[in-house]
Amino acid sequence: MRILGDITVVGSTPAGGLIEIPVQVKELTTGEIRAWLKASGSVVGDVVDCTLFDDFSLPDLMTLTSLTADEIDQLPPSELRRVRQKAEEINADFFAMRNRVVQLGRQALAGSSNEPPVLLLRPATPTSGNTRGASFWQRVKAVLKPGSGK
User: What is the model's pTM?
Assistant: First the structure.
């Protein structure tokens, strides 16, 4: 990974004061992208981590930047969006791949690759009793498998 961008964001301290947090934005290597893809089928964090934004999760932001969970907790969503925009500038190929994988997964879950893909930028993640989410990556692999006819 290379550090290719810096951004300073403003958050709140527990006492109500303001704090400036310097953030380094990383360019992911191909190996780090592979590791992210392998880990993306497991649930990380809580419902806020995974659903605060439609197009990225807070754990994704920690992968792409120097931000820690404690620092993220001090930042309002508007500042997190600024960090995400910088991360997308530096990791455009990663975000494009992520979108394609999610589109393929949505097609697989819908049961047909002939339907136009539904754009949802966060993959379903398995939770207890959620068999559709648990089989997400198996279905993506089936769609991507050479000779699968899809």
Answer: 0.67
Q: How far is CA 38 from CA 16, 109, 139, in A?
A: 39, 19, 14
Residue 149 lies in a domain: no
74 and 7 housed in the same domain = yes
CB 2 within 8 A of CB 65: no
Q: For 83-98, how does the pLDDT look when each residue is reduced to its tens digit (9 = 90+)?
A: 999 999 999 999 999 8
Map residue 10 onto helix, strand or coil.
Answer: strand
Residues 23 and 42 occupy one common structural domain: yes
Per-residue model confidence (pLDDT) at position 111: 76
- Per-residue confidence band for 130, with pLDDT thresholds at 50, 70 and 90: very low
Shared domain check, 81 and 19: yes
**Which alpha helices (DSSP H) does 1-147 contain, by range?**
30-39, 47-51, 58-64, 69-73, 77-90, 92-110, 131-134, 136-144
